[in-house]
Amino acid sequence: MLRFFFWIFLIINGLLLALNLGYLGKWSDDEREPSRMKLEKNADKIKLLSANAAQDLIEAHGKQAEVKLSCVELSGFSAADAKAFDEKLKTLELATRLTRTELSEVANNMVYLPSLGSKDAAEKKAAQLRKLGIAEFYIVQDQSPMRWGISLGVFKTPEAAKAHLANLAKKGLKEAKLAPRTVSSAKVHYRVQELSSDERQILEQLKSNFASTTLQECKAKSD
């Protein structure tokens, strides 16, 4: 009997020795509970969020996914420029997002060519302007020192008038002048809403062909 217990004791000790030496594979809490141990090792990286903080995080993520839209106003188009601009706008398919308004403005800055002395001379100069690609002008025929001169546009601000002068110079007309002259003229304004960034870029490119016009962010509508 003693010999039996001796061999049992010896076998148990041999198994324990083999287990500790790794012959029977590792026996540790890491293998038995790997998920729990990983969580315990990274416990310092776990952050608990309050309900409000979690909601804010969800809303912030949603806002990032939203497409950013903008609203712009374009002003200062003459009747002739507005007609050309209307054709270009068709490529954007703005539909109800576009509002077009005609307003009467009092302008005080005229870009012009001085009197050419006669109707024939004025008409000859007008033909030269058309060859340069300048289509918006009229021959002054009233009884004033400007008679038989050519008006190339009247503008509300000096800055807009100077921009038009520079644009005319690029086309080859360098003798145009700027002078104060009060004239009531019709101008067309546009308001374009819900523009995507790509649409806005295209709109700005279209507007760049009309030097005397302005583009700005929409103003809040008054009640």
UniProtKB/TrEMBL annotation:
Molecular function as annotated in GO: peptidoglycan binding
InterPro entries membership: SPOR-like_dom, SPOR-like_sf
UniProt entry keywords in alphabetical sequence: Membrane, Transmembrane, Transmembrane helix
Domain SPOR: 103-185
Pfam families registered for this protein in UniProt: SPOR
Transmembrane segments: 6-25
The name this protein goes by in its record: SPOR domain-containing protein
